[in-house]
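Look over this record as teaching material.
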Amino acid sequence: MKKRLVFIVVLTLAVPCLCATAFALDEIVQKKTFTLKEYTCVSGKKIAPVQVGYETYGTLAPTKDNVILICHFYSGTSHAAGKYSAEDKAPGYWDAIIGPGKPFDTNKYFIVSSDTLVNINPKDPKVVTTGPATVNPQTGKPYGMSFPLVTIRDFVNVQYQLLKSLGVRKVKAVSGASGGGLQSFEWAVAYPDFVERIIPVIATPRLHPWLIGWLKLWGDPIKLDPRWNKGDYYGKEEPKDGTAYAFMLITLSALWEEWAEKSFERKWADQAKNPFDAMENEFLVDAALYKGALGRLATADANSMLYMNKAAALFDIGRGFPSYEDAVKIVKAKVLMIGADTDILFPVSQIKSHAEIFRKAGKDVSYFEIKSGLGHLGGVLAITQAAPMIAWFMEN
């Protein structure tokens, strides 16, 4: 394996620190919008129009075949690298591996990063998505729960149309973490002749019942909030309590005990309020989870979270095939699966078992494991551990 520099991840939770000759994607990026006049969902229902936002990094080759597609995770957006303005405190979430000289090298590749349908952050002015918070042109009101159910295949189909609109003939790789990993697997099955490689991170080719159960726990607090009103809350008071509690569950399940131990220990939220003295007196971890959840309410939409949960729960590359193994057989892309050792949402045992199924089917599959105390989020926050492997995989 060729030696590569390892980079320290840059996110809103970390301070940029780059090694030796490595460079951040030191450029201002722009959000662009792709529009389809009409889209027919996997379910057969139509949505008109459909819009998703996207960003690009690097230069598209005249042959239009140097493309990498980045798919975002559950609560993410298309902002994978660079900054929207020089004043931004931090770049996109995977800036550590996107840029000149990095595994997703913008000196070689043209990188496209797309928002998905039903992105959970429609109130973010930098997010462009069509989902339940979108105004239905036929009624003049937000779709709410009348929006059609969409699947990961629908996400991928819209991305395919986006790439075709750019004249792209084939992609060098599709990659993403968590929900982005699900999309990577779906790409390999939906468009096997269009994709040379996939790099799904902290994800499996089908959702296991363990995570389906977590998705129910993430969604139920929203439905139990009276202000949710069966999804009819637009223009009214939103179900903030339920949405905040959902984010608390998501955050805790996406991390690991080491994160809590190192960050909070058994400290009190308020040194003047001993948790032993009153029911309402909290520990620091309680207050931190709640504060973080409240911070997400500014951009998130409760209904969109429910739709994203449903799309994830439905995910199985074997759907529409006689069996899961039959779906694996049609994959032509080389595959690099990346797990995180403390991930409880996509345990490494599950990822390895799928890698073995791909291997037995004669597929070119590799596996790499991130060692991190950050649980599921190790696939985003500690992705630099995998940088040498990703670089090798892209070049071989």
Summary: Residues 1-23 have pLDDT under 50 and may be disordered.
